[in-house]
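The instructor's notes for this session suggest beginning with a concrete chain rather than abstract definitions. Hand out the sequence below and ask the class to guess, before any prediction is shown, which regions might be ordered.
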Amino acid sequence: MDIGFETIGNATLICHDKAPVLATDPWIAGSAYFGSWTRSHEIPAEQLVDIKRAEFVWISHGHPDHLSEASINLLKGKKFLLPDHVGNRIFDSLKNQGFDVHILKSREWISLSDRIRILCIADYNQDGILLVDLNGTLIVNLNDASDRGWKRFVRKIVRDYKVSFLLKLSGYGDAEMIHIFDEDGRFVAPPAAKKEPVGKQIANLTAQFGAKYFVPFSSMHRYQRADSVWANEYTTTLEDYRNGFESTHCELLPAFIRYDCSKESLERINPPPTSPQVFSPAQFGDDWSVQLGADDKAKLTAYFQSFEHVRNHFGFVRIAVGGETHTVAMDGPKRDRGITFEAPRHSLMLAVEHEIFDDMLIGNFMKTTMHGGLGKRPLYPDFTPFVAKYGDNGRAKKYEELETYFGEYRKRSPIDYFYKQFENRSVNIIRQLMVLDSRAYSLAKKIYYRVKEI
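After discussion, reveal the predicted structure:
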C-alpha cells in the first residue's frame, strides 16, 4: 500500500506511507483483565507483520486491551508515543523498563513521515485520542474516549477534510462493571440488557463530529473465564453495529478494513473469530476459596482509605474473599451507604498492589453489591473515576492533589474545559429531576443529542 491504513484486532490502527509507520494500541498477544478478556477475532499474519514493522507505536491509555504487557514486549525497540497524561504513570513505567518513550504535547501536529502527521489529546479521564492526517485523509481515533472538552476542537478539524473516518468504541456497553447485585442478592440488569440498536448510537456520534465514515472500533472482545463468560450475553457482535443505523451524511463501514488513500478504495479484511474456549480461574492464578491474610487486610484498608473523595462519600467498602469479609470503614455521612466486592484473593491483591483496580471492575468476574440506596450505577460518579482514573492512573488521591490535577487540564484549554463542566452539571440536574426510562427523560435525551450536533 502506498498511503493508507488498516483496522484490525481490538483497537489497532495501522498507518502506511509506503511501509508501515504507526500502530496504535497493539493487543497482539495474551489476555486482558486477569484472563477475563480475549480478542473476538484473530489478527491475520499480514497485519501482524505490519504491526511489528511499524516504526511508531501509540498507546492511548492504561487498560490492558490497549496497553498489553505481553504485546509491547514483542515490540521493544519501537518508538512509543503517549498522550500527555497528568501523572505520567505510563511514561514512567515504560521508561523504567527500557522502552523508547515520547510524550506528545496535546493539540500539536507532528510529522511521522513525509505524508503522515498526527495530533494527540490527553483528557482528565486518563483517556487519549489521536488524529491522523494521511496526505489529506483524516482519521479520528477516539478508541474508548468520550468527550471531556475536546469535541468542539476535533469537530472543527474534521470540517477541513473532504474524507474523514471516525473510529470509536460503541456497542451495548459491557466494558465496565456490570456484575452488580442489590442487597437482596438480585442481579441488577445492566443497560446493555436492553440491546438498544447500536446503529442509532453510531449515527448520533457521526452527526456530532461530521465524519464521512464510521468504523466500529475498540470493542472487539469476548469473555473467556468460567466466572465471567456469563457477560458474553451483553457483548456486541459485528452484525449488531448496523442495527438502527440511519444517516444522510455518514457511511457505516465494517470493523476490519484496508483503505488505500491514493485510490480511495476500500477492502474488507475478514479475520476468523478466536476459538471460543472457557478457562478455569485457576489458570490465571485465582482460587476463590483462598482467604485474605492479615497483611492483605492492612493493604486493602490503606488502599481504599487513601482516596479522600471515596472515603468521604461512602460509609464502608466491604471485601468478601474466600467466604470471609473484611470491612474498610469510611467517613461518609451515611454509615449504611457502601459497596461489597466479592473477588478471588490473587487478582484482587495484584490489582491493589499494582493500583489497577479498574481491571477488576471491567473483568466482570468480581461481584459488586450495593448498599444503602445506591442507584443502578453505584460506582458513578463517586467511586470509579476517583479510584481508577484520577487516583490510580492520575496519582491524585487527596483533595489538594485533585485540585492540582484538574487545574492542569483546565490550563491546557480553559474555554473547552469550562464548556464541558457546564454541560456535565446540566446533564446531572436533568438526571436528578427526571425518572430514568420515562418518556420525559427520553425526550430530554433526544434534545440533548440534537444540541450536541450544533
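Then share the key points. The chain has a mean pLDDT of 94. The first strand starts at residue 3 and ends at 8.
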